[in-house]
Automatic annotation (TrEMBL):
<dbReference type="InterPro" id="IPR050469">
    <property type="entry name" value="Diguanylate_Cyclase"/>
</dbReference>
<feature type="transmembrane region" description="Helical">
    <location>
        <begin position="28"/>
        <end position="52"/>
    </location>
</feature>
<dbReference type="GO" id="GO:0005886">
    <property type="term" value="C:plasma membrane"/>
</dbReference>
<dbReference type="GO" id="GO:0043709">
    <property type="term" value="P:cell adhesion involved in single-species biofilm formation"/>
</dbReference>
<dbReference type="InterPro" id="IPR000160">
    <property type="entry name" value="GGDEF_dom"/>
</dbReference>
<keyword id="KW-1133">Transmembrane helix</keyword>
<keyword id="KW-0812">Transmembrane</keyword>
<dbReference type="InterPro" id="IPR029787">
    <property type="entry name" value="Nucleotide_cyclase"/>
</dbReference>
<protein>
    <recommendedName>
        <fullName>diguanylate cyclase</fullName>
        <ecNumber>2.7.7.65</ecNumber>
    </recommendedName>
</protein>
<dbReference type="InterPro" id="IPR043128">
    <property type="entry name" value="Rev_trsase/Diguanyl_cyclase"/>
</dbReference>
<feature type="transmembrane region" description="Helical">
    <location>
        <begin position="286"/>
        <end position="308"/>
    </location>
</feature>
<dbReference type="Pfam" id="PF00990">
    <property type="entry name" value="GGDEF"/>
</dbReference>
<dbReference type="GO" id="GO:1902201">
    <property type="term" value="P:negative regulation of bacterial-type flagellum-dependent cell motility"/>
</dbReference>
<dbReference type="Pfam" id="PF05228">
    <property type="entry name" value="CHASE4"/>
</dbReference>
<dbReference type="InterPro" id="IPR007892">
    <property type="entry name" value="CHASE4"/>
</dbReference>
<feature type="domain" description="GGDEF">
    <location>
        <begin position="358"/>
        <end position="492"/>
    </location>
</feature>
<dbReference type="GO" id="GO:0052621">
    <property type="term" value="F:diguanylate cyclase activity"/>
</dbReference>
């Protein structure tokens, strides 16, 4: 712009006489030219700002909408996985095979299965479905009906049962006396369980189904389809509040007949309803800033430009802060503040990729006597215990590793600072001592819990994240079997197995 004005003035003086009228016309023409140029510049700037504002608004809205969809769908999957993990201890049990599959005992079904699913986990509906779609038991809360009937074709419950049978057949194994099922970790329960939405008594429910199978091989399944345990929760206000407790979305609803944001589809691809909420659209916050600044630019271009730049920066900071909050929500366990399963799995896989240069160790943790706290003092007290345990674990580990909560009373630690047995043993003892300290609840009650640890070091007990995690879980199982409140190293599993076999042989000889 300066080059244009300095080059044009000599040109006018050279070819035009500087008479008064001409000078006035020259000033008028120059003024008009500058005004026109300024108007064009301001107009282009205003149009550019409107364009940038529109693009930023649409982009921000698009990103926000996509993240809200992902977070809601992840929350639904988490609830399905949690329901399946709740079922796992009851469905994978020799006693269940004995008193449900081999000899159907109604008192066992009522007192062990139905009571646990309702009182311990809040599964409002539960069912047992035998071969040929034969409904053996149905329950609402703890009220059990043993009237048997055959499920009709097209029943969404039957479709879910068929899917669970298919999952079982894929993982079925041959054991002494019959059949069993390939063992899986709780974190991989989706490999043996069937999830889905079903319609029961005209009510839409989220359900999980899995086969009743032996765990220790004391009994075996006969040939043929297994009995399937199904439990379900209604998609009602309580369920929506539970889902939204972490998401903090606005006005979340479920409509049986509306065309909402996320459709609810059953196993047979039938639409049962949809979830909706008021979408958070950060793009709307941009316009109250862009429009006033754009009009202000027409009067004071330089000032308006500076102010606009500042406000755009502030908006960008707000958007980035919002994105950081969303990322943190997706990677953190809301109750404990620890890393959730997604965050921990990513860290574990990353550590596995760097294993050649940076060995590491994994400590699987499970609280002892935690169920008693929930039973005696309520779930609010259990939540407080989880928070206190999380703080103590973070304090014990410090910046030497990552502490995560994988669900319920299960925690896991990724130690990246060291992996030698001596220091891991010291850390384990410190953790056991710390967690064993009494915990004072908000109402003044004092509770105490313990913790059992399973420790596995890479690459000795595994190379991939799944292998090392499986070793740590096996060590944790051995720790609990050995008396709880102690740590067990995966490298000692073989020796422990030999000792167990030796004791068994001595018992046989003595007999």
């Amino acid at each position: 712009m300066l080059y244009f004005r300095n080059s044009s003035m000599p040109h006018l003086h050279k070819y035009v006489e500087p008479s008064a009228p001409t000078t006035a016309r020259q000033r008028f023409g120059l003024t008009a030219l500058v005004a026109i140029f300024s108007a064009m510049l301001i107009t282009l700037s205003a149009l550019s700002l409107f364009f940038v504002g529109g693009v930023a608004s649409k982009t921000a809205d698009k990103i926000a909408i996509e993240k809200q969809y992902v977070l809601f769908e992840n929350a639904l999957r988490d609830r399905q996985n949690l329901m399946a993990r709740d079922q796992l201890g009851l469905a994978r049990w020799d006693r269940s095979v004995k008193y449900v599959t081999l000899r159907f005992r109604e008192t066992y079904v009522e007192e062990e299965l139905v009571s646990s699913l309702w009182h311990d986990f809040g599964h409002e509906r539960s069912f047992l479905v035998g071969p040929g779609g034969r409904l053996l038991m149905s329950a609402w809360q703890d009220q059990v009906d043993f009237t048997q009937r055959t499920l009709a074709d097209g029943d969404s419950l039957l479709a879910l049962v068929d899917l669970a049978i298919a999952r079982h057949n894929t993982n079925r194994t041959t054991i002494e006396g019959g059949y069993g099922q390939r063992p899986v970790q709780a974190s991989q329960v989706e490999e043996i369980a069937a999830f889905g939405f079903i319609e029961i008594d005209s009510e839409v429910m989220i359900a999980s189904a899995m086969a009743i199978v032996p765990d220790d091989g004391e009994v075996a399944l006969p040939d043929g389809p297994p009995i399937i345990l199904v439990s379900a929760r209604p998609v009602n206000t309580s369920f929506i509040d539970d889902i939204n407790s972490q998401l903090k979305l606005t006005n979340v609803t479920f409509d049986r007949h509306g065309n909402g944001l996320i459709p609810v589809i059953d196993v047979e691809a039938r639409t049962l309803g949809s979830f909706s909420w008021d979408l958070y659209l950060p793009g709307r916050d941009i316009w109250p800033v862009v429009v006033p600044l754009t009009f202000g630019l027409c009067g004071v271009m330089l000032i308006a430009t500076l102010v606009l730049g500042r406000y755009i920066h502030l908006l960008s900071v707000r958007l980035e802060a919002s994105e950081r909050r969303n990322r943190d929500l997706a990677m953190r366990d809301a109750l404990s503040g620890l890393a959730n399963r997604l965050c921990f799995d990513q860290a574990l896989n990353s550590a596995s990729e760097r294993l050649a240069h940076a060995p590491f160790a994994v400590i699987a943790c499970d609280l002892d006597r935690f169920k008693a706290v929930n039973d005696v003092h309520g779930h609010a007290a259990g939540d407080e215990v989880i928070r206190v345990v999380a703080e103590r674990l973070k304090e014990a580990v410090g910046d030497q590793g990552l502490v995560g909560r994988t669900g319920g009373d299960e925690f896991v630690i990724l130690m990246s600072a060291f992996r030698d047995r001596a220091r891991l043993a010291l850390l384990a003892q410190h953790i056991i001592t710390s967690i064993s300290r009494p915990i004072v609840l908000p109402d003044g009650a004092v509770v105490d819990v313990g913790i059992s640890l399973g420790i596995a070091a890479a690459p000795d007990q595994g190379i991939s994240g799944r292998e090392i995690m499986a070793s740590a879980d096996q060590a944790l199982y051995a720790s609990k079997e050995g008396g709880r409140g102690r740590a067990f190293f995966a490298e000692d599993l073989d020796e422990a197995a030999r000792n167990l076999a030796g004791h068994a042989a001595e018992a046989v000889n003595a007999a």
